[in-house]
Amino acid sequence: MEGKLKILIVDDEIVDRMAINRDLKQTDLDIEIAEVNDAKSAIAILKTNNFDCICLDYLLPDWNGLELVKELQKLAIKVPAIVLTGHGNEQIAVELMKAGVYDYLPKSKISPKILARMLKNTIRIHRAEMLADSANQKLRETNELLVTQNQELERQRQRIEVQNQQLQEISQLKSEFLAVMSHELRTPMNAIMGFSQMLLLERHGILTDKQQQMTKRILQNGENLLTIVNEVLDFSKLELGHVELYLEELDLIELVTVTTEELRSLAEKKDLSLEIDLKLARPLIVNDGNCLKRILTNLLSNAIKFTDKGGVKITVSARDRETIEIAVRDSGIGIDRANLSDIFEAFRQVDRSITRKHSGTGLGLAITQSLVEIMSGKIEVESMPGQGSTFRVILPRQVVKLCPI
Q1: Distances (CA, A) of 97 to 13, 60, 93
Q2: pTM of structure
Q3: Which of 82, 141, 182, 289 has the lowest tally of Cβ within 10 angstroms?
Q4: Do residues 290 and 169 both lie within one domain?
């Protein structure tokens, strides 16, 4: 056993103390011994000093050994005790052991060898118990801390739940507001465009060249504004879950061809090529033609808008018997890898400055992704700055289940 052991002998008989002291010094242990002759003196010294063990006589002038052990427990003085007595009594031994005494030995059987063994066992057991008590105390403190943390986490969860509910209500109100405002804006915009077209027909008088140019600009800006209003309205419907697919059997090759040709003038204005590559052996699919056309229009118009030279190519192919792929590839400005995760967010544009070159609401790709997800499909993008982008829409050949938004 490592280190010096401090032993306290508590005995009112000087001869017995001397005998115990002698036997202790004859053991193989490194021992420092202190002596007192009554229980109160033992308590006094134990309050101010640490001992590894007490060698305690059972019969003391003031208290007996059992009373002293119980008093030490009340005072929370944790020191192991070995009772040495000249009166062997099994009942006393049982009571002492129940009270927490580690060992009991008649003085007639004391020897250096027995004392050494008893001290080693007693101190070893006591130290193990202290370690266990310390570990249990730390465990209790940890459990109390965990309980406190769990309570705080529960309070935070409840606060977050309330905040999420409030945010959902605000989002709902926002979407409803956008839907109502977009719907209300369409009526005056249609009137502005209608009157502009009537003026250009010159049924109510001839316009000068300058008046025609101004009227055409009114009509063109009205069309642009109506496109923005329609995008906001469509996005609001998607957020509110008001979009429903009207499934029908349709010819995908025909739909892609017609949609592409409708946008060809946009490419020609920028002197861009616009190619169609059809690799679909079985063109018939089941889907919503209007929503699918909206997806194609958004991807193609985006590709043309962000391409200044080169061209745009749309490819239609089958991934397998049950899945089709529509890829729109351009040679435009491309997108930095760091921004790829943001392009499908609503109202998010890579260039958000007022003076940006390419106008728009930032809703096109958000609407496209939502429509693709409703069709139980997915959209992928590959892009490199200065080298162009490729958007791939993967859809089931036959949409059979609507996915909630």
Answers
A1: 23, 18, 6
A2: 0.48
A3: 141
A4: no
